[in-house]
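Q: what does this look like with 2-acetamido-2-deoxy-beta-D-glucopyranose bound?
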Amino acid sequence: MAGKQITRSKSPLVVLTLLLVALSLLFFFLLSFHSDSPAPFSDGPLYPNPIYKPETSFVASLERFLLAHDSPPPTVRSRRHKPEELDDLLFKTETRRLYADPYYPLTMPIRVYVYEMPAKFTYDLLRLFISSYKDTSNLTSNGSPVHRLIEQHSIDYWLWADLLAPESERLLKSVVRVHRQEEADLFYIPFFTTISFFLMEKQQCKSLYREALKWITDQPAWNRSGGRDHILPLHHPWSFKSVRRLVKNAIWLLPDMDSTGNWYKPGQVFLEKDLILPYVANVDVCDATCISETRSKRTTLLFFRGRLKRNAGGKIRANLVAELHSAEGVFIEEGTAGEGGKAAAQNGMRKSSFCLSPAGDTPSSARLFDAIVSGCIPVIVSDELELPFEGILDYRKIALFVSSSDAVQPGWLLTYLRNISPAQIEEMRQNLAKYSRHFIYSSPAQPLGPEDLVWRMMAGKLVNIRLHTRRSQRVVKESRRICTCDCRRANSTTSGHLL
Ligand SMILES: *[C@@H]1O[C@H](CO)[C@@H](O)[C@H](O)[C@H]1NC(C)=O
Ligand SMILES: *[C@@H]1O[C@H](CO)[C@@H](O)[C@H](O)[C@H]1NC(C)=O
Ligand SMILES: *[C@@H]1O[C@H](CO)[C@@H](O)[C@H](O)[C@H]1NC(C)=O
């Protein structure tokens, strides 16, 4: 009786408390919604979930990630099958899907199995970066600050962090992580090839590469497919270089192609197999509001700030500088990607209509993505470049493509740019405002961000990956073994004709 009395007298209190909690939650919800900067894109809010404000800084995101993974959570480890066993199980899964799913093999979301590699290939390397990036601020490679290079190529971190995040915190619908290999469409190898290249002593790094190679090729799933359904991040052209020819069947995540042999050997990279990912931008995003505010301030016609001397295709830079340096409306400046460089590049790009994007060491360069997110229309002078997500995005709507032979003719480039109508410039700028979200990596990864587009592109590759896997499993000695597509420059007699 007494007990009942107490509960009854408590219940109005409970109701009141609940009401208060609910009200304050609502208040917080509204507050966080309003305190966000105004929705930067006209097509709906950029960040639909106000609880998780996305972090776009590599260092900040990584620090938070390492805190959360201080002692990596125990996970259900997939049983290690023999290759033939795994093959049978995958056959069963795929058969079940074929007869149950009217859209199979067009699969969405992509199911990815993330390997649990020993910490020396993963967490230890991330910790090595975090514990040393402050002291290595003066460390350079080929004239560029090393910690900035790592950041610029940190796609391996952003993709992995999204795959590892608890399902309740993930926003992408294009990919799910599976914990059993027989459920997987693709296998993700989380080896930080770029950090090891830059921060380890040369011989140590080479030996780590060999160890990683052995670990990877020992996997039953690798053995079954020859690596064809395995994803390997190699976003710096020197990453994994000493051994990567031995993993050439895998899907490489690359900054660009250049199969002339300078960086990647012909036969090791091609668009049907691999995937191009954008560099991580080094400037803040100029959103739709910023683009309309900066419209009247873009007084420079053509802007370029970067290294003026580069190797390989980057030799075009010196010629362009010679042609353009004294012209009116043109701003060209030698600069590196360091901290002071960021502000200078950001300001310059926001004050310019066009941003020159010549080939760097690779045909594309990080500057291209800085220009895109700054609302500065890229003028791409790089005959060989390949672009990220081109199965989804149309770069002609946000950039101009100029051949290097045209660009170095006296007066040609400036006449061409001055003849572009203000209406066309405005249209391209509006498209840039829409497109910039496709180039901003963040945690949590955002729908339509680069992490999301990676998986949407992968979905398009899947049928071919299976085709080549099965084909490789049944070929006999006399079969044709080499079946690849390749982009090559046309013979000089036929160049000029677009076939
Ligand atoms: C980096 O170089 C600057 C200028 O030369 C110097 O002042 C600074 O102490 C150096 N930083 C480190 C961590 O060595
Ligand atoms: C798979 O394993 C077998 C037996 O160890 C080996 O002979 C074969 O070369 C391996 N295949 C691949 C693609 O690694
Ligand atoms: C290019 O020209 C050479 C020499 O004329 C010829 O042998 C070769 O087959 C041509 N390649 C293509 C792709 O047309």
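The chain has a mean pLDDT of 86. Residues 40 and 288 are 5 Å apart (CA to CA).
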